[in-house]
Model the fold of this input.
Amino acid sequence: MTDMKNKSFLTVVGVIILVFILSGCGSSSKSDGMDMDMGAMTDPITAELSWSPQTAKVNEKVHIQVIVKQKDTNVDKADEVMFEISKEGDSSQHEKVAATNSGDGKFTLDKTFTSAGTYSITSHVTVGPQHTMPTKKLIVTN
Ligand SMILES: [Cu+2]
Done:
């Protein structure tokens, strides 16, 4: 009986690990993934997502930016920065766009929304073996 329990426990652990691997945004990591000390020795990266104006208007440009830092240093050589934009309640409006590297740790995207609603914006930031992806809600009004 304990054998059976152990087996199902291992299966659960296996599934959890698999989910973690699959949720890595499909970005190819340049590290071999087995280098345990890499992550521990490197300071974690942070990504600060913001935009202006705070509340957007239909057909008016919104300036989206994410500032990438490692400790207190701006990271201007991120491997990949993508903005994922989706509209709540409308699965047809979903896109993933590469950000423009504006230098000094700033990655930007100018976006004009053509319909009012609540949008979810995620900035996917990859720096070496690290990945961070803050999400915020943007409201677009008429
Ligand atoms: Cu991501």
